[in-house]
Design goal:
With 167 residues, the protein is mainly α. The protein contains five helices and no strands.
Length: 167
């Protein structure tokens, strides 16, 4: 999807933490990773959010009455989703920090945290599906859920494909 182009390169830059020979190089690499992670976070928040709105507007084709009901609920959803994204970014940072010295205990902790985040995101989507189907219609809410899932899956795939596999 064109609106998400460029994310893999930014993630790879963020997560390409090759071990360095000296302490100064390691500190510089950590600083660069942190800067890249912050830049990626801002990209997620600004670029994707604005593009999501454009995609949703195009696909949903709301009437004026539907538009007035949908967007306030959607904005609340986005605030809650952003909290989950913040937790996800923190988890990615933990993964980056632990990658070179990954232990079984750390891998288990991170994997369980990922599963918890996925469960919370699904619960959030379910809650907001219920709100949208009550405010609009089940068909309209299902259409939004379908579009939202497609966007989130594309983003998830780009993030996952950029993360190195646990060794």
């Amino acid at each position: 999807m064109k609106c998400l182009a460029g994310l893999p390169a930014l993630l790879l830059a963020c997560l390409a933490a090759a071990p360095s020979a000296g302490a100064q190089e390691a500190a510089a690499a950590a600083d660069t990773r942190d800067l890249n992670l912050r830049a990626y976070t801002e990209l997620l928040r600004a670029d994707i959010r604005s593009r999501k709105v454009a995609i949703i507007t195009d696909v949903m084709q709301f009437t004026e009455a539907e538009d007035a009901k949908f967007w306030p609920i959607y904005r609340e959803y986005e605030v809650e989703l952003a909290k989950g994204n913040d937790a996800r970014m923190a988890l990615i940072q933990q993964y980056v920090d632990a990658y070179e010295q990954m232990t079984d205990q750390t891998a288990d902790k991170l994997a369980r945290a990922v599963l918890d985040l996925e469960a919370r995101r699904n619960a959030l989507k379910s809650t907001y599906y219920d709100r949208l189907q009550s405010a609009l219609s089940p068909k309209t809410a299902a259409r939004f859920l379908q579009v939202e899932n497609q966007i989130l899956l594309l983003l998830d795939l780009q993030i996952a494909s950029s993360l190195p596999i646990v060794r």
